[in-house]
Amino acid sequence: MAITRNNGEDSSNRTNGNPDLAQLMQAFITALNANRPPPNNINRGPMSRAQALNEFCKRRPPVFHGEPNPTLAEAWLKEIKVILSTLGVNQDNHRVALAAYQLHGTGASH
User: Which residue has the higher pLDDT, 73 or 30?
Assistant: First the structure.
């Protein structure tokens, strides 16, 4: 999210008409925006499987225990998909492995 320069007001009102101060403010805002890290996985390329697991676990994904209730299963899957999409995990094999990591009890195959 970039920092914006004004809230609909003329910059000369905030700088008392001083062009040097206006330029200094603009340079400061530009420098702040330039030093911001990219959000999540944007512009960093695909994550390794280990990085994906680490980032996935940081989000505290829900665990599925094999309950026979389809509503619980759908809610679990929806939350897992939201986390994976937020992280930018697009590779199917990573998505399946990370979701399977959260299967416990009768829902697990390991």
Answer: 73
The answer, yes or no, to whether residue 15 has pLDDT greater than 60, is no
Is 43 among the domain residues? no
Calpha distance 8→108 (Å, rounded): 56
Contact 87, 52 (CB under 8 A): yes
Q: Is the pTM of this model over 0.85?
A: no
What range defines the domain where residue 60 resides? 49-107
Residues in contact with 74: Cβ distance below 8 Å, sequence separation at least 6, in sequence order? none
58-91 per-position pLDDT tens digit: 999 999 998 889 999 999 999 999 999 999 888 8
Asked if residue 87 and residue 66 are part of one domain, the reply reads yes
**22-to-7, 17, 33, 36 alpha-carbon distances in Å:** 15, 8, 17, 22
Match 């399946």 to its residue by tokens.
Answer: 96
